[in-house]
Specification:
The protein is α+β, with helices and mostly antiparallel strands. It has eleven helices and 22 strands. Helices cover 30% and strands 26% of the residues. Helix 1 runs parallel beside helix 11 and helix 9 packs across helix 10. The chain binds flavin-adenine dinucleotide.
Length: 397
């Protein structure tokens, strides 16, 4: 029986501990006072832990072949979660515990750790890991602990208050690993354009297109939230990791927003609306199409007075107005910070681990979860990745 030390009691570390405990003595260490602290805040406290479409297209990574091999195990892992007692409610492909409570998943995990005799050491930060001839030596704030195998499951730098502060990247580098730049993802985007301030608080359906150095790289549709200094919401989150990287590389980032994605040719539609609804100002014509605050921002940007009439606008003014409704240019200068991010993009490249999540540089050292260079879109993809990688490491040990 080997002694396995798992560092990090988040989604990936818990599953790795449970699986590894079937054949080993396992010690799970975390700086927090309990396991699964981050789990409690996921999915707005409801924990969207899985998705029925776990596939490459919902992830960002530099190593798609390795990720594909990892994701092949999805069904086995979903069955395993079910076998632990997690009863799902599936809504539009998104999995939640039927209780609607993230806390119920954390409770199941805590009890299962106990049942599987996983020893836990909480309120303890790991400061260093070394390997001598046959043992790993883990240095915590209080003592040195020996282990035959070590699983690092310490997450990224996102949401630091849940315990993940990125402190283990340096430790992992000491074993020869590279760390691709770790940047905020699933996070709001910020602009220096002060003219949009007035739209704060508006939520609307939109299509957003991301342009990096004038090249259209992604499009997303769905609800966006307009904030005092930019945009947020699921649709925005899903492009934010790519934006983070582009900003880090000093590239030019522009988001084009269509505020009326369900109306195909808005110019013709608007002209017809003007004909049908006799004698209405531009503001009145936009009534019930756009939120007032958004109308005001768009009219100011178009330099058109709200009490002007469509028929009195020049052709150029008409084109500018329609462009700002269907193709609003928003220059992006930054993202929100790590503490507001749900995950990070970047981390240890997947081509530096084998199929069992073991380091290619150090036998017996395993790397799982968000510490790896994989980030998923909103929808349960990140927890699923944490669970699958934790499962694979624990099972192989
Ligand atoms: C607000 C929010 C909402 C989210 N919602 C969802 C969602 O609905 N669906 C989804 O799929 N994903 C969601 N995510 C992302 C998801 O929670 C993470 O991707 C996932 O939890 C990562 O798991 P992990 O095990 O890799 O790391 P973490 O859960 O971050 O766990 C890492 C653990 O390691 C510990 N640790 C770190 N360094 C040390 C050290 N030096 N010594 C000891 N312990 C250490 C930390 O205390 C922490 O407990 C959300 C994230 C946030 C912040």
């Amino acid at each position: 029986m080997s002694k396995v030390v798992v560092i990090g009691a988040g989604a990936s570390g818990i599953i790795a501990s449970l699986k590894a405990s079937q054949k080993n003595e396992v010690l799970l260490i975390d700086g927090n006072s309990q396991c699964g602290k981050k789990l409690l805040v996921t999915g707005n406290g409801k924990c969207n832990y899985w998705n029925e479409d776990i596939s490459l297209k919902n992830y960002f990574t530099s190593d798609t072949d390795v990720l594909n091999k990892i994701l092949e195990h999805k069904n086995e892992v979903l069955d395993y979660l079910y076998s632990l007692g997690i009863y799902p409610k599936v809504k539009n492909g998104y999995y939640y515990p039927a209780s609607g409570l993230a806390a119920s998943i954390r409770e199941i995990f805590e009890r299962e750790l106990d049942r599987c005799n996983v020893k836990t050491l909480y309120n303890t930060k790991v400061l260093n890991i070394e390997k001598n001839t046959d043992k790993f030596i883990i240095t915590t704030e209080y003592e040195k602990i020996e282990a035959d195998k070590v699983i690092i499951a310490t997450g990224s730098k996102a949401a630091v208050k849940t315990g993940s502060d990125g402190s283990c990247y340096e430790i992992i580098k000491n074993f020869g690993h590279k760390v691709n730049e770790v940047l905020p993802a699933l996070v709001g985007l910020k602009t220096n354009d002060k003219s949009i301030k007035e739209w704060v608080g508006v939520r609307c359906d939109a299509k957003i297109s991301l342009f990096i150095d004038n090249k259209n790289v992604i499009e997303e549709s769905g609800e966006i939230q307009l904030t005092e200094d930019g945009i947020s919401g699921i649709c925005t989150f899903n492009i934010s990791g790519v934006v983070s990287k582009a900003i880090y590389e000093n590239k030019n980032v522009l988001v084009k927003i269509n505020f009326v994605p369900s109306i195909e040719n808005f110019y013709d539609f608007f002209e017809e609306r003007n004909e049908k609804l006799n004698n209405r100002t531009i503001e009145e014509l936009l009534e019930s199409i756009l939120n007032y605050k958004l109308t005001s921002v768009i009219l100011k940007k178009s330099r058109i007075k709200k009490d002007s009439y469509w028929d009195n606008l020049t052709d150029n003014e008409k084109l500018i107005l329609i462009k700002n409704i269907t193709d609003f240019d928003l220059e992006i200068n930054n993202t929100n910070s790590y503490d507001k991010a749900q995950v990070c993009t970047g981390g240890i490249p997947l081509n530096e681990i084998n199929n069992n999540m073991e380091s290619i540089y150090q036998n017996g050292l395993y790397l799982i979860g968000e510490i790896l260079d994989v980030d998923g879109k909103c929808g349960g993809f990140n927890l699923a990745f944490a669970f699958i990688t934790g499962y694979l490491a624990g099972k192989s040990i």
